[in-house]
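Q: Start with the shorter request: fold the first protein.
A: Done. Sequence, then structure:
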Amino acid sequence: MVKILQFDPYQDFVNFIAVLLEPIGLDQYAHFIAIVPFLITLYIAYLIIARSIRISFKKAGFPREAITGVIFMVRLVFFGIALIAGLAVTNLIAGEGVIAFGALTGTAVGLAFSRSLSNLVSGLYVFASRPFRVGDYIRLGSKEGIVQDITLNYTRIRRPDATIELIPNSDIVESKLVNFRVRADEYLEQERPERTTGYFRTAMKTLKGFTTGEEVYRYTFEIRIHRLGDAISAKQRLEEVVEKWHDKFLAPPEMYYSSNDYNGIAFGFGIIVRNAVDIMNEGTDFQAELAVAVHG
């Protein structure tokens, strides 16, 4: 009969510690002391990984808050490993108990911090993809305004009514996002060459005067004419307002047909401004005058 030799380096190490502690009567604590080197090694690994993350994220241009958030999550992971491994190695809890404890703890933490963790992950995505930056004018679903600050959990925008709203980053990832900042030269390249009449032709001439790479804001919105209203007359009044505002922006306002459904006809409008705050000032006045022209 062949005897199978079992190799258990950890148990051998515990026995070695027990032999060293036997003269002073502490051999019964060998299991506890044996875990110390493992914890030290785990801590060194955490320091190395945290330092690597900090250096890499700084080179990538991530803000300090994002770096701190990532390191905090890594710290939680290492703490969980240390806790579970410590319980298992010291035999305070049986193997099945460690698995159950880990699952229970993970579930409890997940339920308690699911929203926060979702915001953290979404915040990292926002920092990495950079769909907008501070100072941009964005539209997120039905909300819009100027981006004031971007944190790991929330994005703060200033709405047209001057109120400050905190939007969870998870909502930003899940919602339709429009950033009205454009590069003048790229905008001209994307537009169809055959669309060279009316207001758009004048707008193209204005944009061609910008230097390559210069950024502006092209803000668009809709004005709807109810299906029971006089669409022809309303359209004429809208065109008069557009003509009145011909010299108010960097380029003459655009007016175009947008959609037609059971509720009525919608006309789209576009304005080009140099600064995002101009959308809230002159842009809001322009929208108000168009609305009055249609609805009286």
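Q: Next, the second protein, separately.
A: Sequence, then structure:
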Amino acid sequence: MNQNVHGRDSKMLRRLMLLGVAGLVLVAGVASAQGAETDRFKGDWKVVELVEDGKTIPEEVISEWLPSGGRFTISDNAIEFTDHTTGKKQVKLFSVDETQSPKGIDFQTRDKERETWGIYRFDGDQIVLCLAHPEDSERPTTFSAKAGSKHMLMTLERTSGKKVAAKPTPAGPKSTSAASPEGPRYLTDAEATKAVTGTWRLTDAMGVLIATLRPDGTFSNVREVTELRLFQKTLVQTPVSTGTWTVKNGQILFHVLSTTQIDRLNHKYAFTLRSFSDTDMIYVDPFGQIGRAIRVK
């Protein structure tokens, strides 16, 4: 599959997540002096909806996308969570401004430097947050994250007054083709190899890409573009890259052997598989972006 290094827009989500975005939910970051408002935040929370700059993050991968599995505990002006990638406990500080309309929230470093700002509202046992990075956008004024806004819209749901442990993430991707009382089944590498073999269509920042993964372990990518041919627009498939592929530990490993992008020649790229169905698959690319591919054949 062709890689795309998304621009600064796509860095927002990683910046928020990796710097403490689990803390996004930390909306509970309220100063203890704020009394009753602080008490509303106290407890255990999980992220149930996530939209970044017009892109909806599938619910089934939210727990794998966010540190701590998208779960954390809020007390006073701090949010606590354990990063499932390092096993280390993290604490983030926050403050709210009830005088704003909608109410404002800021996430800060220990040096009191503002990392993220946004707005929040309570909706029953849920908190709705709309966030942005000060370098990318003014503080949001509405609860929306349309494409090009550089905003993140997040919904948190209260789990209980007690800490809820995040479930460990199995190594393999989920199969959602057939429902079962036990929930999704996790595929072995051999099963995932069989499931991913075929031709897939996906859309990235450069347009439409068609990726064909063959049973013999080779792949080829073509880019679909519209060109003016004989005084009319025609859909044309232009070769992009070829090489070999394999599945190992729940990842598709691509080795690019020929490409129109010379800087990617002989490079290897890993796509982490998250879930499959009969018609599509969800993956995380090497740059941490979640994508969806549709089966063509």
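Q: Describe the second briefly.
A: The helical segments are 8-18, 36-41, 59-65, 189-196. The longest strand covers residues 232-248.
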